[in-house]
Amino acid sequence: MSGKPRLTYLNGRGRMEPIRWLLAAAGVEFEEVYLETKEQYEKLIKDGFLLFQQVPLVEIDGMKMVQTRAIMSYIAGKYNLYGKDLKERALIDMYVEGISDLMQMILMFPFSPPDAKEKNLESIKERATNRYFPVFEKVLKQHGQDFLVGNKFSWADVQLMEAILAVEEKVPGVLSGFPQLQVFKTKMSNMPTIKKFLQPGSPRKPPPDAHYVETVLKVFKK
User: Which residues form a coiled coil (predicted)?
Assistant: First the structure.
């Protein structure tokens, strides 16, 4: 092994994308193994690699980690993106959990039946503009700092940046009523590690297409 973290998932965003974002933001290079068949997935289970029979799987520091939240907590802690004390960590956790709720809607959107797509898109827009983005707009305005917690770059900033771009793909102009988030997005985009991740050819995955949906259904079908 090269010593780089090794990520096993499908060749698409899904639950691995926030992990890719966090590693990239921390400036960590990683390797990826892509699942393309049900047999590959079943072999991982049979070999005892998947504690709860689920991916993402991340091999890092001699561990085989599963469960997205646990993986990301470890990465954030290891690379000093998890606040300076318990109070800051609690704030980061709260923000991350909130963003994850919004991202779950985006994650499931490609699997919507055709007749529900418009309604689900409207739900994403409504939740983003009325429930989630106002929280972060207010936080940034109140403390007047560049980052969400402790005036220091953290896991919460990475998650928020990913969410902003994911919502904008579906709802262009969604930040029009959020001047603080517009400034935040510009600053984040210009951070060297994130700027690199946003360039073509980086490990960042494109929006899910029909082929990705088909692969997911094929690999995980009961």
Answer: none
